[in-house]
Every structure is written in C-alpha cells, then in structure tokens.
Design a protein that fits this description.
Aspartate Aminotransferase, domain 1, binds pyridoxal-5'-phosphate, five-stranded mixed sheet, 14 helices, 2 domains
Length: 383
C-alpha cells in the first residue's frame, strides 16, 4: 500500500473486544497472566516493557520507515540517548554531525564524555571529513539531515557506504523530513531517529521520540536500554501521535508549499540579507536536496539587514508567528536559535558551523500563506 494509506491504517486493527476503529488508550500498569506456564501469553507483562497503544504506534512507524522494528520514547532526546547508550561503551568513539540539535550536542559534550565516550563533530556534508574521522574504536556515526538549525544536508547514501566499509552503524536523525519525504533506511542507514514531537504529532500536543532499526539485532539493543532505563512513551502520547500520523503527508505537503512561497518572498525582500531553504535554487546543496528527498520540508532560516538587533526586532514584532521553540506543528513558529534551541552550543562552535547571532529560524505551519507573509511584511517594516 502507498504511504498515504499506510499512515492511516498501518499497525491498527479494530479493537478485538468492541470493534472500536481507533486503538484504545490502554491505561494500565500491569497485565494479569493466565498462569505461570503461560506467562506473556497475550504479549504483555508490565507497561515499562510494552503497552498495546504504544505498540500500535511502533508498528505504524516501523511500516512508514520500512524498518524491522521501532521503539517509541518519552522524547526525541530519549531516543537519541538510548541509541548512543546502546551502541557506545567507555573508551569508544562516535562521529556526530557538526550541526545538530542543541540537545544532541549537549549529550555528546556534557554527559557521555563523563563515562569515557569520545566524540568527533565532523562536517558530515563532506564524506571525506567523515572518512578521516573514523578511528579503530569508532562504533557509531550519527548524522542529522537537514540539520537544525542551518539546514546543512548530509548525503545519507555516501555516509552509509563509509559506515558499511568499517562495519559501523549509521543512525540518521530524520526529524525534519520524516519518512514521507526522506527514507534513510532505503538509502543504506541502519537506524532512523525521530522527535515525534515535530511532524508526526504536528499539533504542538505531545513530546515523544522513536528509533526505527533496520534489523532486529539493533532493535534488541535499543529495547534492552529502553526497558532498563525506563524512557518509554506513555499510552496517551502514543494515541495522540497516532492521530497526527494520519494526516502527516497532507500537512507536510501544504506546509512545504507555504515554506516555498515564504522563502521566495524573503529572497525578494530588500531588508533580508540571506535566505536559506533547500527548495531555493540558491541553496548550496539544492541538487542533493532534490536527489535525496521527495520534498524540501517546511523549515527556513534567514538573516535581516542590521544583524542581531534587527532580527530581534522582527521576532518581537510578528503577531501570527509565535516566538517559541519546537517545529513541525500546524502553528507557525519563529525561533532565535542562539538564545533558544542552541544556547548551550559553545560560541566558537556556533560561529564555526554557521549558527550566526542574527539567524532567524522559521517553522512554517498550515495557516493561509498570505496571512503569514503579511505578518512578516509588517514585522520587516518595523526593522
Ligand atoms: C532534529 C531534532 N532532533 C531531536 C530533537 C529532540 O527532540 P525532543 O525535543 O522531542 O526531545 C529535536 C528537538 O527540537 C530536533 O529538532
């Protein structure tokens, strides 16, 4: 079946007891066993180890990504943390994209090094830089593409090839495009990681995460860490996320069309110095964006003439765009990464990878594009 059918039906059966078309929220800690000999006869023991509502979402995400298995997590960061804990030991090394979500950077600079894990932040847009960063003790390559917030792209197939040559798993944070637009496992990656908080939910209602593995062996490592550390998704969050999944393609296509129109508007505006959107021909990696994904997403960044004060004035002046963290929701959001999502990234590192002080990040939502543009226009007029 096609993606748009699967996003509605995959993983979901009518409830066997009542026929309810939506998987119920199984709000229960434990599951009564029929007998000791038939322990786990119905598949469940305790909700930290598995819950039927969460399982339905995991089955849906497995099918949407084309993986072997999925584990749903309490947040996107819990999914990233479990991946690193599952694959890395003290004395081992991982390569991470030099532009990545601020929380991933924080995990790799402030937590895991305390346990003796070493990291190299490599320019994963450049396969040679990745190849040169591989060491004898490298056990994970973790890329994020498009990267938050600069939208730098990593060639998933090229990096997966390097990973395969060295027998190292390649995990891709696929949050910005989802499997609707970008299919890391088909491009050779071993794991696809998500903050389901973003496009899968899409309504600013939940925080959640997921790891979809290409093999049962990798999934077993993730499952073990999750069950031990307890970073599970709750049944209510799984239920809401499942409802969000059903409209994923429709929302993403409309948000992507809005983003294209807004990027073109910004590109033509005299007060805007630089606009970055993978759908623009001026985007440095536009060819890779076209080759690797079937859509350009709905994230844009730009810089206003007059630098940081001008950018701040704009962000304080817009009314329809909410000044908020998060992305991927039907509500359009504007974010200042330097004070918000990437505040913990060292200033020299931010400058080196292009997260400038004046960078304004847009997450384009589903409102009428004319209203979104008019609001930006009035904000820019105040700059
Ligand atoms: C690309 C990316 N990955 C992971 C995360 C972390 O997700 P969560 O906020 O659900 O923990 C985010 C959050 O913004 C993100 O943008």
């Amino acid at each position: 079946m096609r993606f748009t059918t699967q996003q509605i039906h995959a993983g979901v059966e009518p409830d066997p007891v009542t026929g309810a078309i939506l998987t119920p929220i199984y709000q229960s800690t434990t599951y009564v066993q029929e007998s000791i000999d038939n322990y786990l006869g119905k598949g469940y023991s305790y909700s930290r180890s598995g819950n039927p509502t969460v399982r339905a979402l995991e089955k849906k995400l497995t099918i949407l990504e084309g993986g072997a298995e999925c584990r749903a997590f309490s947040t996107g960061m819990a999914a990233t943390t479990a991946t690193m804990l599952a694959l890395l030991n003290g004395g081992e090394h991982a390569i991470v994209s030099d532009v990545a979500y601020g929380g991933t950077y924080r995990l790799a600079t402030m937590i895991l090094p305390r346990f003796g894990v070493e990291f190299t932040f490599a320019d994963t847009a450049n396969p040679d830089a990745v190849r040169e960063s591989v060491r004898d003790n490298t056990r994970l390559i973790f890329t994020e593409t498009p990267a938050n917030p600069t939208l730098k792209l990593t060639d998933i197939a090229a990096i997966s090839e390097i990973a395969r040559e060295h027998g190292i798993p390649h995990a891709v944070d696929n949050t910005f495009l989802t499997p609707y637009y970008q299919r890391p496992l088909e491009l050779g990656a071993d794991m696809s990681i998500h903050s389901t908080t973003k496009y899968f939910d899409g309504h600013n209602a939940t925080v959640g995460g997921a790891v979809i593995s290409a093999t049962a062996e990798l999934d077993e490592k993730i499952r073990f860490v999750q069950n031990t550390t307890g970073s599970i998704m709750s049944p209510q969050v799984a239920w809401l996320t499942m409802q969000g999944c059903k409209t994923l393609s429709v929302r993403m296509d409309a948000q992507c069309a809005n983003a294209m129109a807004i990027a073109e508007f910004l590109q033509g505006h005299p007060k805007v110095e630089r606009v970055c959107y993978p759908g623009l021909a001026s985007f440095e990696q536009h060819e890779l964006a076209k080759r690797q994904a079937s859509g350009f997403g709905a994230m844009i960044w730009f810089e206003v003439e007059g630098g940081t004060p001008a950018g701040k004035k704009l962000m304080d002046s817009v009314k329809l765009w909410s000044l908020a963290e998060n992305l991927g929701s039907v509500e359009s959001l504007v974010t200042h990464p330097v004070t918000m999502t990437h505040a913990d990234v060292a200033i020299e590192e931010r400058r080196r990878v292009g997260i400038t002080d004046g960078l304004v990040r847009l997450s384009v939502g589903l409102e009428a594009v004319e209203d979104l543009i008019e609001d930006l226009e009035q904000g820019l007029a105040k700059v």
